[in-house]
Prior knowledge:
This protein has 249 residues and is α+β, with helices and mostly antiparallel strands. Helices cover 59% and strands 15% of the residues.
Amino acid sequence: MKKKIYILITCFGAMVLTLHAQTMNQADSLYMAGQYEHAAQLYQSLIDEGVHSADLYYNAGNAYYRQNKLADAIICYERALRLDATHADAKHNLAFAQSRTVDKIDAVGTIFLVDWWRACYRLATPDVWAYCSIALFVACLIAVAVFVFGKAIWLRKTGFSLALVALFFTIITALCASSRYREITDTSLAIIYVPTVTIKSSPDNSGTDLFILHEGTKVSIKSNLNGWLEVQTEDGNTGWLPSDAIVVL
C-alpha cells in the first residue's frame, strides 16, 4: 500500500513539474512574440503557485519592464538576485530599471569586510553551504579518529592538523549558510509600489511632510504601527508611509 502511495505521489509530482515546464515554455513563446502582458500573467501564475527560481523572476521582470511596469520589474529582478546573487543578467537589468526611477538615492557605503563577506556567502545557496558544512564536519570527525587511533606520530600530527582545518571551514560554511538564508528570507526590504508617496514625520496623515518617494525606490522597514510603516531610504532618511504603498521583497 505504501509503495502505491509513493508511486502516486511521484507521478503527481512529475505531472505538476511537466505542467509548470509547459507554462514556462508558453510564457517564453508569448514574450518572444511581443505579447508581454500575457507572458507576464503566465509567469506570475507560476510564481503564485509556489514556483520560485531566479530565471522565472528574471523573465517576469523583463515582461513587466516591457509594459513599463517599473515597480513590478524591479521587484522581480530583486527577487531573482535574492535566489541567485550571481545572476549577471538580472543584475544588469535591475541597474537599468533603477536608472529610470525618479529618486536618485546614493546608498550609504559599507566597510570593505562587510562587502567581502557578502560577496563570499552569495556565491552559493543556503542548501549548498549547509551540505558543505556537513561534509566538512564529517571530515573533521574522520581526522579526529585518525589523531586518536593513529599509531605513527606523523599520522597523528596530520590528523590533528586536518581536524583543525576542517573544523575552521565547517564553522565558516555554517555561517555562510546562515547569512545567506537570512538574506533570502529577509522581510525588512520593500519597493515603493505607488507612483508617489509622501513620507510623514509620524504614523498618521496629520504628520509633517518630510519628503516624497516615487515608484521603484527601495526602502527598509523599521517598524509597523496601525497600518503605517516607518521606513528608511538607502541614504539614511527615515519617515512613515501607509503600508499599502509598498511591496515587501
